[in-house]
Amino acid sequence: MIAAVGHFTLAAALAVSLIQMVVPLWGLRSRNVSSLSVALPAAYASFALIVCAFALLTVAFLNNDFSISYVAHQSNSALPLIYKISAVWGGHEGSLLLWMLMLTGWGVAVASRSRKLPLEISATVLSVIAAITVGFLLFVLLTSNPFERLFPALQEGRDLNPLLQDPGLAIHPPMLYMGYVGFTVPFAFAIAALLHGRLDTAWLRWTRPWATWAWSYLTLGIMLGSWWAYNELGWGGWWFWDPVENASFMPWLVGTALIHSLAATEKRRVLASWTILLAIAAFALSLLGTFLVRSGVLVSVHAFATDPARGVYILGFFSVVVGGSLALYTWRAAKMSLQAPIRLNSREGLLLVNNVLLVVAAFSVLLGTLYPLLVDALGLPKPSVGPPWFNATFVPLMLPMLALVGFSWRVNWWKADWGQAVRANRIAMLIALVGGLALPIVTPNVRGLGIFVAMILAVWCVVTALAEILGWLRKGRLPPASVLGMSVAHLGLGVCAIGIGMVSQADSELDLAMRPGDVAEFGGYQWEFEGTEHLEGPNYSAEHGVIVVRGDQGQELTVLEPEKRRYRSQPGNPMTESAINIGLFRDLYVSLGEPLGDQAWSVRLYVKPFIRWIWMGAILMALGGAIAATDRRYRMRKTQDEGVALAGAQA
Amino acid sequence: MRLIGFLMLLLPLLAQADWSAQDERRWRALNDELRCLVCQNQSIAESAAPLAEDLRAQTRQMIESGQSDKQIRQYMTARYGDFVLYRPPFKPTTWLLWVGPLLMLIFGAGLVWRMRRGVAQGAGRSAEQTHAEVERLLKDIDND
Amino acid sequence: MKRLVLAFPLLVLVVLIVALGRGLSLDPREVDSPLIGKPAPAFTLPLLSGDRLVNQDLFLGQVSLLNVWASWCVACRAEHGILNALSKQPDMHIYGLNYKDETIDAKRWLAERGNPYEATLRDYDGQVGIDWGVYGVPETFVVDKHGVIRAKRIGPLTWDYVNQELLPLLEQLKGEA
Predict the structure, then answer these.
(1) How far is it, in rounded angstroms, from Cα A611 to Cα A488?
(2) C34·A381 Cβ contact <8 A
(3) Residue among A56, A35, A43 nearest A16 (CA)
């Protein structure tokens, strides 16, 4: 019953989305206002239908309806409630339904604010969003239907992959998809700009908050993925340059370039067509990410169960959407560009450099991710491209960015006065130098000299951002939202950079065999292994270990309890649950390896300095974006005079 | 099999006398760079697979017997191909990979340089001139 | 010129799509062996039957298959029937490399499922496996008359693979000098 109704709602959503896509566009051609007005109710209707479908699938999970194939493969009666709900998006078909929920949700968000837009713009934007929705709905209905029946129904589900039975599953995909999918909105605005042949200040004011919101969500989504991997995977890693991670990082890099480019275009009316290209690119990279994760083209820890047939569809969809957009761009942008010269020695010049660095970084990540495939496609023996290459390429691009960030607000539009900028930042520079040198010095076990440079730059970022906020407060006012948001985000960047630098260059690891009663001296702590005991969980059995950590004076600091779990659904594949003692300046991390007989275990001990700063910094970045997006300038006012046309002829 | 594993783990403790902190760093760095081929994209340092364990023991033994990092990498690629190295070697099939980002950077810098002069206006008209003119035009309309 | 610059992203896209399309038909986990065309790595191993030691000269003078297997390997069971059938063909020399296995388990496994091997080499610690670039069981190597590795099959044998690729290759190698 649920399956049939669910299937029907998806088909109905497809019909509504088709209407939402086609009718407004026809309305544009024929200048028919009522056709244009169809877009709004259609957007609400398609969202309502997808919500229904999503709710029905969730109910199926809660009811243990194993007559539905997806539920049978992803769930189990013994699965704890929170994971039963999260399991709805734990697999390919369900995650697509989540994608569409977000997509139609963003559509409703645009629709609800559309009264402040001219009708033809909002209709075009909603029409483009509908086109993307149609593409995904077709994909779901043709190849990945979550409501597919299973005959005969299974008595018991196969259980959710134990790796996914973690609170991270509850929030990481939703946040990530909010970001990925959110870039559809600036994309839709970009297409609208190209189709209408105009790009003006009003367009920028409409587009900018959407891009910023999407970027904030994506930042959170990536941060949650990293945090989750650290907690879940058992060897203390937090970023692997894995293809699926890169798939989310590339839109983020381009998205960052986009929000900065929008700032330059809005203020100084430059880079208009470049901004449009970035909006298209950010969305294209989101779609590319979808392809990479679901097609089986690349090897990854994260990939969904792969199916080349699905890959063919997504590749086709990707080609049509991105190819069409870029063709439109190539055709239209030339006519639209009023390319004012840019003085490099100005804030817009710095933003341009920012964009170049970010786009080259995104391109590099793309190159590294796809290179083995490219070589293999040519029939040559394929290389592996891993963290050593990515770090060697990415870090040199980002360090100059950190340096430039600190100057951003001190450098004027039109013409920079570097003398004044340096003078204003004198104290900040001094603090950066001292702080940046001090950090690696006071932290034990630091490797290499590059860390000093990195820390000076990172602290520079932090200090200048704080100085900016303090400057306003000292004048007795709160900074405007856009300035506050920018400062908080840059602060977050610096904090994140400190975390990344320190944990990469100052972490310690010890891999050893321990028997009950053994004490290891490591990292300035004493780690006593007390042995393991067997215990039974809801859907697993585990060996529960206890390690007591003491400081160098013998005082007990914490008790860590790592586990080795055997989930009943996957008896041959034990899962490692690491135990972590969280600290502001360091994490203590333990995981159990293999039982060695006679109560001995191989154990991995880690000390991870400043690792929390990575995620705290990311949260600050996302927060900064959210603050900036609420700036009063963006409360969309329907202006009679739409501001100066930056580019292109009328209509 | 477990007994072997246990003994293999104890061996390092027995060989402690010859194993310095620098050896340990080298060993860890090499393990981070070698792919675990039976895994879904993990290094042999990260993986718990038996093959990863064997290869970690192999690299350890090679360091102890005085082999250089280069020799150890050659040993691995002779058996498993370049695919086993996470740091791709610099050879004709990977030139584009190593040089690509730099080329893009130069290309980007070139585009930026061209923008100084403005594309629509062509060379000769500087930013100052355009600035003055546009400011004049915008003074009334700009209500930012 | 400007058009060219604007068209650049489109160009990149086309290259990307072609490469990705091609990638859909490739297996990303399949790795070409660097040993193909090279002499079989040297080894000295005892036989499962325990009576003597053999080395790589074992392969000289005939076209051989070396099948890497273990009693704990589930996928090996799938291909064992094919190996049994193949072993009955004339002039077919199949050797087994028992990889990281207990002798008693290996012997029992063969007793239960049939023994297609002329001889089974015992690689208890897996060192020879590493030398041959073995990373997953089962794997099968084709070695020519001069002891040179000519092909490697990763994963279980299938009749499709045997009929379309393996048997023609064996014929071709037998015809060589």
Answers:
(1) 19
(2) yes
(3) A43
CB atoms within 10 A of CB A119: 17
C119-123/C139-143 β-pairing: unpaired
H or E element at residue A66: none
Contacts with C77 (C-beta within 8 Å, 6 or more apart), sequence order: C113
> Where are the strands (E) in A454-523, listed by range?
508-514, 519-522
A276-300 per-position pLDDT tens digit:
999 999 999 999 998 888 888 887 7
Distance from the Cα of residue A191 to its chain's centroid:
23
Task: Tell me how close the Cα of A440 comes to any Cα of chain B, in angstroms.
Answer: 19
Token pair in block for residue A72: 């049978």
Write a three-state SS string for A379-398: CCCCCCCCHHHHHHHHHHHH
Angle between helices A347-377 and A387-407 (to 10 degrees): 170
Contacts of C43 (CB under 8 A, 6+ apart): C55, C56, C121, C128, C131
Other C-beta atoms lying within 10 Å of the C-beta of residue A363: 22
A381 → closest Cβ in B81, B86, B118? B81
Question: A201 is written with which tokens?
Answer: 């200040």
Helix axes A92-112, A39-62, angle to 10 degrees: 150
The torsion angles phi and psi of C98, rounded to 5 degrees, stand at: -80, 110
Angle at A617 between CA A614 and CA A623, to 5 degrees: 145
Task: Assess contact for A491 and A458: CB atoms under 8 A.
Answer: no
CA A258 to chain centre: 15
What would the pLDDT profile of B96-110 be if each residue is shown by its tens digit? 999 999 999 999 998
Cβ-contact A568, A162 below 8 angstroms: no
Q: What is the pTM of this model?
A: 0.91
What's the N-to-C CA distance of chain C in angstroms?
A: 60
Best CA proximity match to A140, nearest among A321, A10, A15 = A10
Q: How far is CA A502 from the centre of its chain?
A: 23
Smallest CA–CA separation between B41 and chain C, in Å? 10
Residue of chain C minimizing CA distance to A323: C10
To the nearest whole Å, the CA of A282 is away from the closest chain C CA by 13
The shortest CB-CB distance from B40 to any of A301, A380, A388 is to A301
Q: Are strands A586-597 and A579-581 parallel, antiparallel or unpaired?
A: antiparallel
Cα separation, A117 vs A123, in Å, equals 9
Inter-chain residue contact A344 with B6, CB threshold 8 Å: no
Q: Taking the CB of residue A147, how many other CB atoms lie within 10 A of it? A: 25
> Chain A: residue nearest C36 by CA?
A381
pLDDT tens-digit profile of A200-217?
A: 778 888 899 999 999 999
Scan residues 72-131 of B and list those with Cβ closer than 8 Å to A: 81-89, 93-94, 96-98, 100-101, 104-105, 108-109, 111-112, 115-121, 125-127, 130-131
User: Which one, of A244, A360, A275, A259, lies nearest residue A621 by Cα?
Assistant: A259
Residue of C nearest to B108 (CA): C5
Q: Which of residues 361-390 of A touch B (CB under 8 A)?
A: 363-364, 367-368, 371-372, 375, 380-389
CB of C39 less than 8 A from some CB of B? no
Q: Which tokens belong to B40?
A: 């879904």
Cβ atoms A492, A621 nearer than 8 A = yes
Predicted pLDDT of residue B128: 56
